[in-house]
Design goal:
Layout (H helix, E strand, L loop, with lengths): L5 E2 L1 H10 L14 E2 L2 H5 L4 E4 L6 E2 L2 E2 L3 H10 L3 E6 L6 H10 L9 E3 H9 L7 E4 L15 E2 L4 H6 L2 E4 L7 H13 L4 E3 L5 E4 L2 E4 L1 H12 L4 E2 L5 H11 L8 E5 L2 H10 L3 E5 L10 H8 L5 E3 L3
Helix pairs in contact: 7-8
């Protein structure tokens, strides 16, 4: 089975609950308001959007999303994408946003790859091995001269540390090689995408976070997660877009309780959960929020 096997929204929610002990603390209050996004956004100065499930599903833009973002910017709002999409270079991401009809500037797109690179700058030199499809342009990751993890056990053994960045092409056999290598010789594991799943055209696919938690359960190695719901990516977003802003004037908009909503709440932001696409699609929202014990401030169908 490859990483592109699809997961149901109910199974994804249950999987997030199983790893809740590795995520940040409380997820905001216990009450929420159903609202129209336009009314919600009026009350904030900086709007942070998740990508998958909010602006796009896989390689398809969600209808109306690009126009909504452009209208917010035209009205004087600051906007940014805050995404756990770490598998692609910045140039690739910007080209992709243009193709999907969005007019984001480079400083309006902050990804968990940015947070990972920020962390790597403070790490000692290592022979890093990466979970990343070698057929995809490595972009900024290429400067670290990575070892691409495929099917040769020797590559897993000679690495000084591991970067879990993109799960495209990852297999259970490669996961087994990684777990075996870490059991034999524990080494640092940095996770460039903490998401367990991502909404794509064919359903929810397994992402690097899925495999990171699995290897931690199997080996006892504790990964370092860079991306939502952890703080570094939110710190980068605010620093780049509005360094002096009151966190209470920031709205985090996302489709996933355990990344977007939990992380936004931890950063002191207001949060809006999008339910029309993405991680909770087809589930009862009230039941899901209660089960997760992570409550947004607002629930909207779409932006």
């Amino acid at each position: 089975m490859t990483a592109q096997a699809t997961i149901t929204p109910a199974d994804a929610l249950a999987a997030y609950q199983r790893v809740r002990h590795r995520l940040p603390g409380a997820g905001g209050g216990s009450s929420w308001v159903k609202a129209e996004f336009s009314e919600v956004a009026d009350g904030f100065d900086l709007i942070l959007f998740d990508a998958y499930g909010v602006l796009n599903v896989g390689e398809t833009a969600i209808p109306g999303a690009a126009a909504r973002v452009a209208a917010l910017r035209a009205s004087g709002k600051l906007v940014a994408v805050v995404s756990n999409s770490a598998g692609y270079s910045k140039d690739h991401m910007m080209s992709r946003w243009r193709r999907l009809g969005f007019d984001f500037a480079p400083d309006e797109v902050i990804t968990s790859r940015d947070a990972l690179i920020w962390q790597l700058a403070s790490e000692p030199p290592r022979a890093w091995a990466v979970m990343l499809n070698p057929e995809i342009d490595a972009g900024e990751i290429a400067s670290f001269d990575p070892i691409y993890l495929q099917d040769d056990p020797a590559d897993y053994d000679r690495a000084d540390g591991f970067l879990l960045i993109g799960a495209d092409g990852w297999t259970d056999a490669r996961q087994s090689l990684l777990e075996t290598a870490l059991r034999r010789h524990p080494r640092p594991v940095l996770v460039g995408n903490p998401d367990l799943v991502a909404p794509r055209e064919g359903g929810l696919t397994r992402e690097p976070g899925w495999f990171a938690h699995r290897l931690s359960d199997a080996t006892g190695v504790t990964p370092r997660f860079l991306g939502k719901p952890f703080p570094e990516i939110f710190d980068l977003a605010v620093r780049r877009r509005a360094p002096e802003i009151d966190p209470r004037r920031v709205l985090m908009v996302g489709d996933t309780l355990h990344t977007d909503i939990l992380g936004g709440a931890q950063a002191g932001f207001a949060t809006a959960l999008v339910t029309g696409h993405g991680a909770l699609m087809g589930l009862d929202v009230t039941t899901s929020i209660a089960a997760a014990a992570i409550a947004p401030d607002f629930v909207v169908d779409h932006i």
